[in-house]
UniProtKB/TrEMBL annotation:
Taxonomic path: Bacteria, Bacillati, Actinomycetota, Actinomycetes, Kitasatosporales
Presence of keyword Transcription regulation: yes
UniProt-listed SUPFAM superfamilies: Winged helix' DNA-binding domain
Entry-linked InterPro entries: Bact_HTH_transcr_reg, Tscrpt_reg_HTH_GntR, WH-like_DNA-bd_sf, WH_DNA-bd_sf
Species in which this protein is naturally found: Streptomyces edwardsiae
Keywords: DNA-binding, Transcription, Transcription regulation
Start and end residues of each HTH gntR-type domain: 15-82
Domain of life: Bacteria
Pfam families xrefs: GntR
Secretion signal span: none
UniProt name for this protein: GntR family transcriptional regulator
PANTHER family associated with the record: GNTR-FAMILY TRANSCRIPTIONAL REGULATOR (PTHR44846:SF17), MANNOSYL-D-GLYCERATE TRANSPORT/METABOLISM SYSTEM REPRESSOR MNGR-RELATED (PTHR44846)
């Protein structure tokens, strides 16, 4: 849920609060904050998001189900509005929109359970030398020229709250392939609102730039930090933005 400002619920006379929440939730569905087909956060997270009780959320969801805007199965409720399928990433791919550039390009990604690189531990609030999940990505053009090299460290919060990331701990030996392309979507599905700050600097004496991304959630808890070095002459960094619902 991508809202970054508090909710206020001025009611018209006689309007139940749950109907107002249903209207606001419908607005977020229509604005793409919750993509069609994506599973909604649980009642507790929705109650925190809208700053109301779980019973109010439950009644609001029932209104949307009755109108055919939500469907519920054993996995929970999901949006049924027409639009792009949920498989289309809502954010640029991880890490930082990494993708093979050009025909014949190659890429490799691995994960390891190890101490994060220098500077990552402090940004994540991790004790020095304490291991965490570290993701490494590398890509090169068909002629062998390195295009991108990235390293990402995840926080304890991300591993505890994002089930898909937590599963990697037992098989993060640094050798097997790792597909974390949808890491940001996993975080959103876990009910985390993602805020990121990217710093881009030129590397002296080289045709490259360094991008450092810091991601935190709606409670200002750090989730991950990524450091990416890319060849600015051979590769293109693309940013995609999802506009949050209007307040």
């Amino acid at each position: 849920m991508a809202r970054t400002t508090p909710h206020h619920h001025p009611l018209t006379e006689g309007e139940p609060l749950y109907r107002r929440i249903a209207t606001e939730l419908l607005g977020e569905l229509r604005d793409g904050v919750i993509p069609p087909g994506e599973r909604l956060p649980g009642e507790r997270r929705l109650a925190e998001h809208f700053e109301v009780s779980r019973e109010t959320v439950r009644q609001a969801l029932q209104v949307l189900r009755r109108d055919g805007l939500l469907a519920t199965d054993r996995r929970g409720s999901h949006a049924t509005l027409p639009g792009r399928p949920v498989e289309a990433p809502a954010w640029s791919g991880f890490p930082l929109g990494a993708r093979c550039a050009g025909r014949g390009a190659v890429a490799r990604a691995t994960v390891a359970w190890e101490a994060p690189p220098s500077g990552h531990a402090e940004a994540l609030g991790v004790a020095p030398a304490r291991p965490t999940l570290v993701h490494r990505y590398w890509s090169a053009s068909a002629d062998g020229r390195e295009l991108r090299a990235a390293v990402t460290s995840f926080s304890a919060v991300a591993l505890a709250e994002v089930e898909e990331l937590g599963r990697y701990r037992d098989r993060a030996d640094g050798t097997g392939a790792a597909e974390l392309r949808r890491a940001y979507d996993w975080m959103r599905r876990a009910g985390l609102t993602l805020h990121h700050r990217d710093t881009i600097t030129r590397i002296a004496g080289a045709p490259s730039v360094r991008v450092i991304r810091r991601v935190h959630d709606q409670h200002a808890r750090p989730l991950e930090i990524t450091e990416l070095v890319m060849d600015a002459q051979e590769d293109v960094l693309v940013y995609e933005f999802t506009v949050p619902a209007a307040v």
